[in-house]
Design a protein that fits this description.
The chain has 14 helices and no strands. The chain is mainly alpha-helical.
């Protein structure tokens, strides 16, 4: 892997964690409540409903790191059972936050031993896409069929749903395009066609038009907010400030927008104040894991 890909992979991981930490402060707040309290929320300060320490992250980042460790333990393979075991161990460690769908399906796995949750129209949450980055890094250059199999191996542990699958497929395709092809010199609009394809397959994802404020944990609303923020801005900082100030499930919209914008804009585009504010143990873990996942493919 060349230095450019390594830089962008690390920036994606840091972007994930920074977006998570930034957004967690205003999670479940409305845009009006955010404006009243902060005018514009732009600093990693902790707090929020989870009463986090400044720089602390939530399940978006810690589940991603757990998934990455499982992939590395399996020599780069994304295997459903290993993913389920990693997630279940993560849950046993009492994370600061856990989504209802994740908890329910991991408890089921604990009793059944089956790492594939049953298909459910009710499991269209954002929990599978928020942690997809390690799969994207581990499958760079792989055939589409193998990438799709890997995506579903981790996603279906907790979210066996076509809308969730569509979001995961699209985000991985966008990340691969940035890491392998677009690189420096492109614009965010070069990635718009991936979102357009998703909308063509699932009209629910239509994002042009009304601003998606206060996005819920429903994966459609999450991705609408991410797409709008990413395509409406021209740098990493503005993208994250835009998306988290929409409130709602802001740690997850921040995490997803952060991984995409990080990959696209690179390490130098991430504000130093945000890098310094992030929990140093998390920061180091993200940088090391990004390199390790890339090394599998080299």
């Amino acid at each position: 892997m060349n230095a450019t890909i390594a830089d962008r992979a690390q920036a994606a991981y840091l972007g994930l964690a920074i977006g998570d930490a930034l957004g967690a402060t205003v999670e479940f707040m409305t845009p009006g409540e955010i404006r009243h309290k902060y005018r514009v929320h732009r600093d990693i300060r902790g707090g929020g409903w989870l009463r986090l320490k400044p720089g602390q992250v939530t399940d978006d980042t810690t589940m991603s790191l757990a998934l990455g460790r499982a992939i590395l333990t399996q020599g780069g393979r994304v295997e459903a059972l290993a993913c389920a075991q990693a997630f279940e161990a993560w849950m046993r460690a009492k994370p600061v936050d856990i989504g209802n769908t994740v908890r329910r399906n991991l408890v089921t796995f604990r009793h059944s031993g089956n790492p594939v949750a049953p298909p459910s129209e009710h499991d269209a949450g954002n929990g599978a896409v928020m942690r997809i980055l390690p799969v994207a890094l581990a499958t760079i250059g792989e055939p589409v069929e193998r990438v799709s199999t890997a995506i579903r191996a981790q996603a279906h542990v907790t979210h066996h749903n076509v809308l969730s699958d569509g979001a995961c497929d699209t985000l991985v395709a966008m990340l691969h395009a940035v890491l392998e092809k677009i690189g420096a010199g492109g614009t965010a609009q070069d990635l718009r066609h991936f979102a357009t394809v998703l909308v063509a397959r699932h009209a629910e994802y239509t994002f042009d038009g009304k601003l998606r404020d206060n996005p819920s944990g429903y994966v459609v609303e999450t991705m609408q907010a991410v797409f709008q923020a990413f395509f409406a801005t021209t740098n990493f900082e503005d993208c994250l400030i835009d998306v988290v100030n929409r409130g709602g499930d802001a740690d997850t919209t921040g995490a997803i927008a952060g991984m995409l914008a990080g990959a696209f804009y690179g390490l130098d585009a991430i504000p130093r104040r945000w890098r310094r504010a992030l929990d140093p143990n998390v920061r180091d873990a993200c940088l090391v894991q990004a390199q390790a996942l890339l090394a599998i493919r080299s």
